[in-house]
Amino acid sequence: MIQVLVTAKDGQLAQCIQSLTTQYHNFQFVFKSSSDLDITNKTNIEEVLGAQSFDYCINCAAYTAVDKAEEEIELADRVNHLGAKLLAESCHSFNVTLIHISTDFVFDGKSSKAYLESDNTNPLGVYGITKLKGEQAISKALERHFIIRTSWLYSEFGNNFLKTMLRLANQRDDIGVVGDQIGSPTYARDLADVILKLMESKTTNYGVYHYSNEGEVSWYDFAKEIFEVCNSSIKLNKIETKDYPTPAVRPKYSIMNTQKISQLLDLKIPNWKLSLAQAITNL
Ligand SMILES: NC(=O)c1ccc[n+]([C@@H]2O[C@H](COP(=O)([O-])OP(=O)(O)OC[C@H]3O[C@@H](n4cnc5c(N)ncnc54)[C@H](OP(=O)(O)O)[C@@H]3O)[C@@H](O)[C@H]2O)c1
Fold first, then answer.
1. Angle 270-213-245 from CA coordinates, rounded to 5°
2. Which residues of the chain have pLDDT under 70?
3. Cα separations in angstroms, 66 against 69, 104, 249
4. CATH level 2 (architecture), domain 2-156+184-214+255-271
5. Which of 24, 42, 46, 61 has the most crowded Cβ, counting Cβ within 10 A?
6. Residues acting as catalytic residues
């Protein structure tokens, strides 16, 4: 049996992993909440990693409040950078392979073609900066690591764009959604499945990988499809980023090239529309 530790069990991604565990019989999972395992506390990490022998640690813990991070710089850094560093150092000491999740926000979105893993990073805000520092600290501390950058994560769990749109559809007659930011929505359950496949493959091709669902859309297109699938009558207006100012600047174009992980695991990545329909059914 492959022994797997998962951090932040109440977060969106960890809950998706939990929902898939019955489909993977050769893994034994230990899920820890943020109060059982605080990744910013070295003693706490060592207690958990020392309690039993783990093959993998999947780090789902992160400071994910992108706008609030512009004010809570120290806290965002503590979790996304220093927490990731501590976890990687402890994984090194306890011989554990770390699977860490990062973000498209490490890029500035000024490219016109899909980002490769090897492309230059240039985060625009505190969240992206702290996530990038986390990536760098992990690759310095630990050879046995996989960093999976993903984008526009949503699911039936936690707070996300899909759930916000469904809530607003019940509360409002119309809504404005940004049409000039392009990305690839990712169903967190698809990402969870890929993480499990990665462990199952036992590959040792460590490093950075990109994973998102297939296809490019704006937030407006994403919202439009959500309302269509749900037969919502809400009036949807396309607005521009300048009409919806936020504390954190978002990348305008954050498509990531996913060929590296597709080839590694022989994946056929689902198109975003297909996965969205699946997520709405699961909701
Ligand atoms: N959501 C997106 O659109 C998106 C896009 C790209 C990448 N990502 C990345 O994907 C990963 C998973 O995101 P998600 O959407 O599942 O996030 P999420 O739902 O916001 O969950 C984050 C979890 O981290 C926990 N946490 C915070 N500080 C912690 C600490 N010091 N120790 C242990 N746990 C801690 C939180 O617990 P408490 O609530 O108890 O504090 C929460 O359960 C993250 O690395 C994120 O950066 C997300």
1. 150
2. none
3. 5, 12, 9
4. 3-Layer(aba) Sandwich (3.40)
5. 61
6. 127
